[in-house]
Structures are given as structure tokens and as C-alpha cells.
Amino acid sequence: MHINWKKALIVTLDVVLAVYLGLAMTSFNKPDETAKLCTKVSINIADENTNGFLSAKEIKKILEKKKLYPLEKHMQAINPRDIEEVLKTSSFVNTVQCYKTQNGHVCVNVTQRLPVVRIMSVKGDDYYLDDEGGIMPNSKYTSDLIIATGYINKDFARHYLACLTEVLMDSEFWKNQIVQINILPDLGVELVPRVGEHVIFIGYLPQSKDEVKRKQLITDYVMKKLERLDKFYRYGLNAAGWNKYHYISVEFDNQIICKKTVKAMPVYTPPVIKTEEKKDSTAVTTEKKDSIKQDNNKKSV
Questions:
Q1: 8-66 pLDDT per residue, tens
Q2: Pairing with 224, which of 109, 168, 189, 210 sits 20 to 30 Å away (CA)?
Q3: Strands 135-137 and 178-183
Q4: Which CATH superfamily is domain 40-112 in?
Q5: Could you give the residue ranges of the DSSP H alpha helices within the chain?
């Protein structure tokens, strides 16, 4: 049996080289954690200044409460997966990634859920909706969000109000112009603008059991109403005055119904007689009576 020693040697060297490279890469990617402590924790929150729900301080507090804050702990004892799982339980966290570096650092990268509207219903509910229609609990968040009031249950908020708010937020103008959405008992929709002393009635949002169809119907409906309202703003209110009407309805396609602002008539107020003048008049009358009395006495004498 003839053995090709040259070929066998090449194969052997290839195997040895592959094992060496595998071990080298594993050793390079795995930090040397023996007898090392975590010297720095980097917490990065995307859109921290925009969303405002979470801060590095709050992330630290969550990890400290669960005794998972890694600073000054042995690197070998730190499990990034545990840190990720704990932070994912927060109502305000969207995604989280945690990893360790060779120089004793632990990095935590977090993205937040994006709130788009605050719900304050007549039943006392107070919560936020995020950009995916999810419900977020109330917090100390004070950003300039649109507020939705009135007869709103959570089902209507998720399936109808979220889509309406998304349309408003997609426009830079309407995002800044509309400050409040009010839902009437019959589910009619009113919009309260930032500029102008009027309320806008856009009608009733289309309904459908199919989620995709419903979203498309609501988007088309609201955009159509806002387009007509935008034209009325440009060519109507700019000429007539922004405070001329107190109620504007764009419910119907072929007309815009406006109710004028009625100014109260001035009420006539009669002049008030000062008390001091009355006293002076009484004093003069009394003096006159005393003078007549004295004259009569003189005549009788």
C-alpha cells in the first residue's frame, strides 16, 4: 500500500492550523475574566432626550434593585443575559443589548418605546399609547404629547385612536397644531388646535374588523379631512380671522359648517350713589329744619 506522505502532511498541517485558529479566535473574543473586576458601566439610551421615559440613572436603579448592577463585580460572575431579561420587563423598554469587553467594561444599549398620545378618559383611565398601539402606564413623563379625552376605552384607543394619532404625528404641521383629541359619547371625533379659539369636528372614524383594512380606511379618512381643513385655514381663516368661529365641522365632503363666535353684549350698570353724599344731604336737611324751628320759637316769644 502506497502512502502519499506529502499529501498526508499537508492535510495534517491544515487540521492543526484550523484548530489553532479556532482556539485563538475563541481566546481573543472571550475576555480574560480571571481575577478582573468591572471598572466601568456604559448605559446608552437611544432617543433619551426625545422620549424622556428612561434615563441612565433609572436603568441603574432597576439593576441595583435586582442586585445586577455590574460595577466592581467579578467579570466572570456577570451574566449579560440576566441584565437583558430584567430590563425587558420595564414597560418603557423596547430592546436591550448587554455585553462585556476585554478591558473590564460592561455596555448596556437600550431603545425606548415611543409614546404618541396620552389617554385621559372620562372613566379616570390615564395611560399612554406607543407608536405600535401598545399601552404604557402613566409616569412622570411631561413631554408635549397630544392628549386624548372623553369616552375612550382601551379597545377603541388601540384600534382607532392609535391610527388617528399616527396620521397627525406624520405631519409636522398637525403634530404641532393639534393639542387635544376629544371623543364624544357617540364616538364622534373633535380636535382642539393650538392656534385659534375653535373646535374641529371631523366626524366618525371608519370601522372594520380587518386590522389592515381598518388602518387604511382611517388613514384615508383622516387625511382627507385634514386636507380640506388645511385649505380652509389657508383661504378662509387667514382672511376672516382665526377667532371668528368657535366650531368648525368638516364631517361632510361637500361642505364646511362653521358656527360664529358670539360676543356677549355689554351690560348696562347704573351709577352707584356714594354713601358719603347721602350723609351730607341728610345733614343739610337736618340743619334747615333746626333753623325753621328756631325762627318759630322766636315768633312765639
A1: 667 676 666 676 666 655 554 554 545 589 999 999 998 766 666 788 898 999 999 99
A2: 210
A3: unpaired
A4: membrane protein fhac (3.10.20.310)
A5: 5-29, 48-51, 56-65, 80-88, 154-156, 162-170, 172-177, 211-232, 238-240, 275-300
- Structurally, at CATH architecture level, domain 148-260 sits in 3-Layer(aba) Sandwich (3.40)
The ranges assigned to domains in the chain are 40-112, 148-260
Residue 204: CA atoms inside 13 Å, Cβ hemisphere, count? 8
Sheet holding 178-183, edge to edge: 135-137, 126-130, 115-121, 146-150, 178-183, 188-193, 199-204, 245-249, 257-260
146-150/178-183 β-pairing: parallel
Contacting residues for 129 by C-beta, under 8 A, at least 6 apart? 115, 116, 117, 119, 135, 136, 157, 158, 161, 162, 165
